[in-house]
Design goal:
The protein has 460 residues and is of the alpha+beta class. The chain has helices spanning 16-19, 41-49, 198-203, 219-234, 240-261, 273-284, 286-291, 307-323, 384-396, and strands at residues 7-10, 32-36, 86-87, 95-104, 125-135, 138-139, 144-145, 148-153, 161-164, 176-177, 179-181, 188-192, 206-207, 338-346, 355-357, 365-366. Strands 5, 8, 9, 10, 13, 14 and 15 form a seven-stranded mixed beta sheet that branches. The relative contact order is 0.16.
């Protein structure tokens, strides 16, 4: 594999300085959520990125309410447990963007360049996906989920949320666009978080496909996919300079992985002396290596890595995973669902890693349209100076007078009509003839008439 193919998503580069101060570099490896409170958020972001050092830290979303608005980077360990990180809708006057940088895994972390041109022979796509988080087991005392499973949104409520593995991307999963934002120093990628879909997301069904593997520890598979496989590829790289550059960052990635998941236990792993010394030096010089300092240490593992080293490392991490329970995000149990977003770089031309997913963002909740305690969208400001000027103009400026219309022309008198001719008298009708008098009828008798069928009565 070529050196340019080894890439990863990281937090946007203007946030590297505060993120590198965290002891576990967790926020350095995940996309950032930026909160704006204006409809002109894109022009503001474009203008901000033209500065030499854009202050994106002042825009990082943090827990807030309508009565207590708050935004900006939180120092490590100061996360609020009173209020969850809730993202509000544009109807509330808020817009939330996910921002990230895609970099190559060599010292200095230069920008990778996805080929997203429409005329490219093999077109690559850059997008974001929304994941819903559901815990399998929950410790109600510490509010730490022991196994958080991700569910992918498939685009409509009937298909709903389908369970996925952490490094899995479903073909039918909905992909939202990421936009390239140029900067004066370096670019970033941003996308709009679909906060307005909270009702749609909440009401959709959640299911697992038949035969889906049960919840398992994701640390050994992540170690194999992201570190052991690239470390095995270092041995076959022909260019020693490229092998050294990749080895240096992979060693730092391995130290970061161990520090994040096993901060107290990874020092007990029986590494060979070269490995142990290299991991310790890489972790101590992590800031210099990421920033590309000229005096940062360099390591070349091309002739050091062996199959037994990789097998031993995987066995050690698997053993530690059995001893140290994996804990997901520290989320407080709530009736409302939790979500996260991932950035996606799809590379059809890369046979080994065609899909490059970022780490999940900071978990958050989505506010409903009628959320109680949500911010109130400010009304449009009234320019009182302009209103006074218009009022004065109405008093001083007289409306123009209408022009007088000419008098209509006089019409000539109507001509006199001749008198109507006299009609002749109607002819007299002949008199009606007299009818003869009606004949007289005989007087009526009280006796009934004889019955012709009855015999006459006999005489005395």
């Amino acid at each position: 594999m070529k050196l340019a193919a080894y890439a990863a998503w990281r937090t946007p580069w203007p946030l590297w300085e505060p993120a590198l101060q965290d002891p576990d570099l967790r926020r350095f490896q995940q996309p950032a959520l930026l909160r704006f409170a204006t409809d002109k958020f894109m022009p503001e972001l474009l203008a901000l990125m033209q500065q030499e050092q854009p202050d994106l830290a002042a825009l990082v979303a943090r827990p807030e309410t309508g009565k207590h608005p708050d935004v900006g980077w939180q120092p490590y360990g100061e996360r609020s447990r009173t209020h969850p990180l809730k993202l509000y809708q544009p109807a509330h006057g808020h817009f939330c963007l996910v921002a990230a940088s895609v970099v190559r895994l060599i010292p200095g972390l230069p920008d990778a360049q996805p080929v997203v041109r429409p005329d490219a022979r093999v077109r690559e796509t850059v997008s974001l996906v929304v994941r819903r988080l559901l815990p399998l087991n929950l410790d109600l005392q510490t509010y730490r989920g022991q196994a958080w499973r991700e569910f992918a949104w498939q685009g409509d409520p009937r298909s709903g949320w389908q369970a996925v593995l952490p490094e899995q991307l479903l073909p039918q999963e909905e992909r939202l666009p990421l936009y390239f934002i140029p900067g004066r120093a370096r670019p970033i990628w941003v996308g709009l978080v679909p906060v307005q879909g909270s009702e749609l997301y909440t009401g959709a069904q959640v299911f697992e496909p038949p035969g889906f593997p049960p919840g398992e520890d994701p640390r050994p598979p992540a170690l194999t996919e992201h570190l052991l496989r690239p470390l095995g590829g270092v041995r076959v790289m022909g260019n020693p300079v490229e092998a050294e550059r990749l080895s240096t960052l992979l060693l730092l990635e391995l130290a970061t992985f161990l520090q994040h998941h096993f901060p107290k236990e990874w020092a007990e792993i029986p590494f060979r002396p070269q490995w142990a010394a290299g991991l310790g030096q890489a972790w101590a010089a992590r800031v210099a290596l990421i920033m590309g300092a000229a005096d940062a240490p360099r390591f070349n593992l091309r002739q050091v890595v062996t199959d037994s080293d990789l097998v031993q490392l995987l066995a050690a991490v698997t053993g530690l995973a059995a001893q140290v329970a994996w804990s997901g995000p520290a989320l407080r149990p709530a009736d409302e669902p939790w979500y996260a977003v991932r950035c996606v770089w799809e590379r059809p031309g890369d046979a080994e890693r065609p899909v490059l997913l970022s780490e999940p963002s900071e978990p958050f909740q989505l506010a409903g349209l009628f959320e109680s305690g949500a911010p109130v969208r400010p009304a449009a400001p009234v320019d009182h100076q302009l209103a006074a000027l218009l009022k004065g103009l109405l008093k001083t400026v007289k409306p123009p007078s209408l022009p007088k219309l000419p008098a209509p022309p006089k019409l000539p008198p109507a001509p006199k009509l001749p008198p109507a001719p006299k009609l002749p008298p109607a002819p007299k009708l002949p008199p009606e003839p007299k009818l003869p008098p009606a004949p007289k009828l005989p007087p009526a008798s009280d006796k009934p008439p004889p019955d012709p069928g009855q015999a006459p009565p006999e005489k005395g």
